[in-house]
Amino acid sequence: MLPLLTRPRPALTVTPAQGARGSRTVPSLVAVAVFVLYTAFALRQHHRFETTGYDLGIFEQAVRAYAELRPPASEIRTASAPPGFSGEAYPLLGDHFHPILILLAPLYLLVPHVETLLVAQAGLVAWSTYVVSRAARRHLPQPGAAVSLGLAYGCSWGLQQLIGFDFHEVAFAVPLLALACAAYLDGRWTAAAWWAAGLLLVKEDLGATAALLGLLLMRRQRRVGLTLFLSASAATVLIVGVVIPALAPDGRYGYLTQQYAYGPFEGLPIKALTLMALLVITAGLATRSPLVLLMVPTLAWRLTSPNPAYWNTELHYSAVLMPIAFLALIDVLRRGVTWPPVSVPLVVAVLLMPTQPLSSLATPDFWRDSPRQAAARTAVSLIPDGARVAASNNLAPHLTGRATVHLVSEGVLSRRPDVNWIAADAHEGFPPGAFDSVLRAAAEEGGWRRVYADDGVLVLQRRSG
């Protein structure tokens, strides 16, 4: 029987003994461990020039704009702007609706560097880890449940993929979902609704998840659930149908009309592997909780999209599913399920670790610079503060905090004749052919001098006069 159709169970109350088990010490230690691991990985990955302008550089330009009291906009994002766009920076709220990024502005003012976003993302994941670990300690009698499930969650493949690919706004959704689901388990229905309402500020597709939680809450406290369902539904329609098109340069929400040569039934083996990966992290037990239904909106738009990037387990798209899966697991385990053991999710996380980003921390090469990375570091150091630069995808996030950065791409010099520096890496493959294209354009245009060249990394400066 589907979870939504089962008879509602009364909320579990927390006894004094459970309150003692709800001590914050163990969950805090687990969260700190996750924070240290992810911060170390993210900063070193950035130092190795394995972060990108698409998307880390774009998000730094957005946060920098907020910090300077400007609407969020990105010069890098203009590389894939719709035909006819002529502005210098693309209005990002006309692409995705993520005003929650403004919360990073005060932190960015204190530490105005792109690394601030990476550390903040690690902190948001660690916060959600604390919430999940504390929920396990609060609701489960098994010794070590908080440590086991906290670490299994913190190292789950969806969160590792989030940390392994730059920074993304959905990092805010991870603790919000964890807090909403934990409040649901505690029987704090109003708190669950408020935490879920915050998803509307993270990204436009998450309104459907908030609305679905409203439906679940209607079975517990009708007024709270109905209010969340109606407000989240209305807000989502307003954001997608009115707000984003009003701010988009072409007057439409572009993700409704993505053009790819794939139909909804393409890539079925890849989609099946993604669903299996979601099942295995909780040994399938999460499917016995109504909370697992919160996955449906995200999985629905991803698996029916014509864009194959949404289908697999890579990138950041599965991060929002991790807190749902593990809080649903806790919901099932607190009812007395004893098999499989509570340690199984941690075993699964360990077995998957060699295929995930954190495994790089154990490899010596991760901590050594290659000649190309050394050349890239020298190249970006030659770009002066305040320059207007066209930079390759892997070089861009090292410059967005102190320069106006456009992406090395087809036609960038004709679109932006005010660009006076080029920092290009022949090894960077995105966008395809961009390196050769910008060099041809510079040669045809004339007036450029070579400042630096080593191991495929090149710096050109426009001659003055």
Task: Give a nutshell description of this structure.
With 465 residues, the protein is α/β, with parallel strands linked by helices. It has 18 helices and seven strands.
Task: Name the shape in a single word.
Answer: globular
List the helices and strands in order: HHHEEHHHHHHHHHHHHHEEHEHEE
Helix content: 40-55%
Radius of gyration: 23 Å
Q: Count up the helices.
A: 18
Q: Please tell me the overall pLDDT.
A: 92
Largest sheet: 5 strands, mixed
Percent of residues in β-strands: 5-15%
**Taking strands numbered 1, 2, ... along the chain, how are they ordered across the largest sheet?**
4-3-5-7-6
How far apart the termini lie comes to: 76 Å
Structure keywords:
465 residues
Provide a descriptive summary of the structure in words.
This protein has 465 residues and is α/β, with parallel strands linked by helices. 49% of the residues lie in helices and 6% in strands. The strands form two sheets. A five-stranded mixed β-sheet has the order 4-3-5-7-6, with helices on both faces. The protein has a two-stranded antiparallel ribbon with strand order 1-2. Helix 5 runs parallel beside helix 8, helix 5 runs parallel beside helix 14 and helix 10 runs antiparallel to helix 11. The longest helix has 26 residues. The chain is globular, with a radius of gyration of 23 Å. The N terminus is likely disordered.
